[in-house]
Design a protein that fits this description.
Layout: E1 6-7, H1 31-60, H2 86-92, E2 100-101, E3 106-108, E4 111-119, E5 123-125, E6 135-149, H3 155-162, E7 166-167, E8 170-177, E9 184-190, E10 194-201, E11 204-217, H4 240-256
Parallel strand pairs: 1-8
Antiparallel strand pairs: 2-4, 3-4, 4-6, 5-6, 6-11, 7-8, 8-9, 9-10, 10-11
Helix pairs in contact: 2-4
Keywords: Membrane, Transmembrane, Transmembrane helix
Protein name: Secreted protein
Transmembrane segments: 39-62
Length: 257
């Protein structure tokens, strides 16, 4: 069960509430005075509404027509080139193949979306029995999903999907807010040894995930040998800093096209 997401590096919010004194409709004040207070409430309400609208326009780029600001993002069929992941490559090894573009991309007047994946080199766990012996390997895969919403504000759905307790049947162990990244950013620590970083900025929604896996390679000779016990699951949480830094680079690359 996940409680309120933790915001790393943010002060504890205050609990101040707006309090208006000196107005009580039951006190029998002169009618002119009641009308004056009503006028003040009307002005205050108008100012509050204007402040909320201004915050939406200047804080999140939502205009009077309700359409989000693209903030310079370009999401096209070739946008997977933004997935360089230099920090993760330094930690896990340079990917041996090109980034793979998934087939469920969207180019629609209301939404552009691309999805792409890249595999890092597998590494051997423990010793093998000669050059053709069986053994356990660990591997890492990174995936990128980038969306550009052109008609509707993506923040309500983003907030809902970033604070869930399970995702596609996989439990979410912990959710942490990441400061100073886009308009909002959440790091999800998943139960299947996956880190998922979700960021929204204007009409852009970007998700960068890193998942780890174990695989067992049988001997090439095909001999029937007993499979050794599986080693501990590969680490992913240690790479959260790399994931966040690579996300910054991905967001910048998506803006420069």
């Amino acid at each position: 069960m996940i409680s309120e997401p933790e915001l790393v590096g943010e002060d504890e919010p205050g609990s101040s509430a707006d309090v208006v004194s000196g107005f009580d409709a039951e006190q029998g004040a002169p009618s002119g005075r009641r009308r004056w207070h009503g006028a003040l409430w009307g002005v205050a309400g108008a100012l509050t509404a204007s402040a909320v609208w201004a915050a939406a326009v200047f804080g999140y780029g939502i205009g009077g027509d309700g359409k989000p600001d693209a903030r310079g993002y370009r999401v096209e069929s070739g946008s997977c080139a933004a997935m360089e992941l230099k920090e993760l490559a330094r930690a896990l090894g340079k990917p041996e193949s090109e980034t793979t573009t998934e087939l469920d991309g969207i180019e629609h007047p209301a939404l552009h979306r691309i999805r792409c994946t890249v595999d890092f080199p597998e590494s051997e766990l423990g010793e093998r029995d000669g050059g053709e012996g069986a053994g356990w390997y660990k591997g890492y895969q990174a995936s990128l999903t980038a969306e550009l919403h052109k008609e509707t504000d993506p923040r309500p759905e983003f907030e809902a999907s970033s604070t869930v307790t399970d995702m596609d049947g996989t439990s979410v162990d912990r959710v942490e807010r990441v400061p100073d990244l886009g308009d909002q950013a959440y790091l999800l620590i998943m139960g299947d040894n996956t880190l998922r970083l979700n960021v929204v900025e204007g009409g852009g929604v970007v998700t960068l995930a890193l998942s780890a896996s174990l695989s067992y390679n049988e001997s090439e000779g095909g001999s029937e040998e007993e499979m050794p016990d599986a080693p501990e699951e590969p680490e992913t949480l240690a790479y959260q800093g790399h994931l966040i830094n690579d996300m910054r680079d991905v967001m910048k690359a998506l803006k420069t096209g």
